[in-house]
Write a structure and sequence with these properties.
Blueprint lengths: L7 H33 L4 H4 L1 H12 L11 H8 L4 H5 L2 H12 L10 H18 L3 H8 L7 H17 L43 H4 L1
Helix pairs in contact: 1-3, 1-7, 3-7, 4-6, 7-8, 7-9
Length: about 210
């Protein structure tokens, strides 16, 4: 008589847990990256302007939520944590990727404005915590397939420069983002209303003060 030692469904449960662990780790790293960049880039308009910073904060708090949707969750789990060969052959992953990119504008394919670019750099920084590189290194390695406007590139490199100069100077876990003003992030910079953008860009499509600058 052969008793059952393991149920087939337990393989799906185990691999789903592994995928959830990965998602949790990434979300935690995104939280840390947002906190870190908020300090490193405190002199940039996207931090010092409360409206822009809180708009970005809401977006980051909802980072990758679509990965828990019916359109993505099982498909991503099957591709990266497959249980059997059928998982690996599932062509639903292509549709899931398309859904994810269209639902999340922190990807270069769908980034529309400067807030999306900051979110993208935060995502790359978070991935770097896990894989041991920086956002700049990731971009340089993959720039042939990443399509960005010249304005967005200049803005992105401004953030890269700040990261490279400050990345070892603070612990993102020590930043209380609920009390940003107490961290010395300062007032709205003088660029607003004068057409001289702190971000180094020639345009300011992300900025609530755009009409004043014009």
């Amino acid at each position: 008589m052969a008793f059952i030692n393991r149920m087939n469904g337990q393989d799906y449960i185990e691999n789903t847990r592994l995928y959830l662990d990965y998602l949790e780790e990434h979300l935690e790293n995104v939280r840390k990256a947002f906190n870190e960049l908020s300090v490193i880039c405190k002199d940039m308009a996207w931090v010092s302007d409360d409206f822009t910073w809180h708009t970005l904060r809401v977006q980051v708090e909802n980072h990758d939520l679509s990965k828990f949707s019916a359109e993505e969750f099982t498909q991503y789990r099957a591709r990266f944590y497959p249980v059997n060969k059928n998982d690996c052959k599932d062509d639903g992953f292509i549709k899931a990727i398309d859904h994810h990119i269209k639902s999340n504008h922190h990807h270069h394919e769908t980034a529309k404005n400067f807030i999306d670019i900051v979110h993208m750099v935060i995502d790359w920084t978070a991935m770097g915590y896990k894989f041991g590189d920086t956002a700049r290194q990731y971009y340089e390695k993959n720039k042939d397939r990443i399509r960005l406007s010249e304005d967005h590139k200049r803005f992105m490199y401004t953030i890269f420069d700040r990261i490279d100069g400050r990345e070892h100077e603070m612990d993102p876990d020590q930043l209380d983002i609920d009390d940003k003003d107490n961290e010395g992030l300062g007032p709205v910079p003088d660029c607003f209303g004068q057409g001289d953008y702190a971000c180094g860009s020639e345009t300011c499509d992300w900025c609530p003060y755009e009409e004043d600058c014009i």
